[in-house]
Amino acid sequence: MAPPSAVPFTAVVLLLVATAAASAQLRPKYYSQTCPDAERIVREVMRKAMIREPRSVASVMRFQFHDCFVNGCDGSLLLDDTPTMLGEKLALSNINSLRSFEVVDEIKDALERACPGVVSCADIVIMAARDAVALTGGPDWEVKLGRKDSLTASQEDSSNIMPSPRSNATFLINLFAKFNLSARDMVALSGSHSIGQARCFSIMFRLYNQSGTGKPDPAMDPEYRLKLDKLCPLGGDENVTGDLDATPRVFDNQYFKDLVAGRGFLNSDQTLYTMAETRDYVRAFSKDQIEFFKAFVEGMIKMGDLLSGRPGEIRKNCRVVNSWPVDILLES
Ligand code: HEM
Ligand SMILES: *[C@@H]1O[C@H](CO)[C@@H](O)[C@H](O)[C@H]1NC(C)=O
Ligand SMILES: *[C@@H]1O[C@H](CO)[C@@H](O)[C@H](O)[C@H]1NC(C)=O
Ligand SMILES: *[C@@H]1O[C@H](CO)[C@@H](O)[C@H](O)[C@H]1NC(C)=O
Ligand SMILES: *[C@@H]1O[C@H](CO)[C@@H](O)[C@H](O)[C@H]1NC(C)=O
């Protein structure tokens, strides 16, 4: 994955920062009058999805990051391509990687049955991400709601902004700072990798050719590396997946304990412990789960406040904007 090119990225960030005040509109219990059961409905569909396929809730939780960092939390990530618009689903970091979009569709269907045209897809992403964490043993918290869905998406912005698994802590600190998120926020939010999986594709370079050295990443625990070498042999199927931490179905601070032990899956994970700027946070979270949970919730709320300030709507179908001929698409 190519590093972000500076120009479009800067433009996007300036837009975000200039309009961050729009987050003032968000508030808890936004749907208490218009759709009082909304949060219960989302939680229930997520619970069923988790029973059906435990990983799906992690996959849905990841949507918040990939939605909010690209022109704000506006549900743009969920839009399918159209003949005139390349959506974000096929952007560099998303293609063959983001999954479980059908869970969001199920949530949307249930909400449209209960209160048609009221709950935005952007808010569904925020509620579902919170529920994924709560359902897997992590903290539960009140989310601010009232987002509108975007009328468009940008594959280019997504490809330029979303970080590669090769990223190091310095790069990630700078990236998150552009979104007003601190190094502590970034480390805590990386703790989302306490649940879910990633592909061999994302770690081949660090197993066999870290930074072009022809050697593996020296920061890896040798036993763990052997395990990953078996899972991801050179020339093997790079779509095979491995667990992001030792307890991939439980949201806990095991992820940080693993980093301290050199058992981080992604380079971007392990570097949080290897590099001095972030090591103390990793160590603290590995020792104190409550502190991790607190920092994580703060980070999720701050990330959820990112808004583009562009005009929006309440989409009827999370995959298409309302002006698009929905009926034709659904019938085909
Ligand atoms: C700090 C920078 C981050 C980087 C570089 C990063 C990168 C990645 C990569 C490369 C994968 C696996 C993709 C694949 O192999 O298909 C992944 C998975 C995941 N990411 Fe991140 N991520 C970051 C931050 C976040 C944040 C902030 C969240 C959510 C708040 C998040 C949630 C997840 C989850 C839950 C998964 C597992 C998804 C699944 O099992 O389907 N990540 N991430
Ligand atoms: C971290 O990543 C950046 C951007 O890819 C790179 O320029 C820098 O040299 C890296 N730092 C270290 C210490 O590897
Ligand atoms: C950045 O975060 C600080 C502290 O959380 C907050 O006071 C400030 O308003 C934020 N700025 C923007 C542009 O979001
Ligand atoms: C390792 O990476 C370097 C630089 O990216 C490349 O020139 C070299 O061919 C790679 N080696 C292998 C064995 O893939
Ligand atoms: C993974 O599978 C997809 C199809 O599902 C394929 O297009 C892609 O090339 C595969 N990627 C890798 C890295 O093997």
Automatic annotation (TrEMBL):
Q: Which InterPro entries match?
A: Haem_peroxidase, Haem_peroxidase_sf, Peroxidase_pln, Peroxidases_heam-ligand_BS, Secretory_peroxidase
- Please give the superkingdom of this protein's source: Eukaryota
Annotated GO CC locations? extracellular region
Q: What EC number is given for this enzyme?
A: 1.11.1.7
Quote the record's binding site residues for Ca(2+) 1: D67, V70, G72, D74, S76, E88
- Transferase as a keyword of this entry, yes or no, is no
User: Where does the chain bind heme b?
Assistant: H193
From the Swiss-Prot or TrEMBL record, what is one GO molecular function term?
heme binding
Which key words tag this protein in UniProt?
Calcium, Disulfide bond, Glycoprotein, Heme, Hydrogen peroxide, Iron, Metal-binding, Oxidoreductase, Peroxidase, Secreted, Signal
Q: Which GO biological process annotations does it have?
A: hydrogen peroxide catabolic process; response to oxidative stress
Q: What enzyme class is recorded for this protein?
A: oxidoreductase
Question: What role is this protein assigned?
Answer: Removal of H(2)O(2), oxidation of toxic reductants, biosynthesis and degradation of lignin, suberization, auxin catabolism, response to environmental stresses such as wounding, pathogen attack and oxidative stress. These functions might be dependent on each isozyme/isoform in each plant tissue.
Question: What's this protein's family per the entry?
Answer: Belongs to the peroxidase family. Classical plant (class III) peroxidase subfamily. Belongs to the peroxidase family. Ascorbate peroxidase subfamily.
What name does this protein carry? Peroxidase
Species of provenance: Punica granatum (Pomegranate)
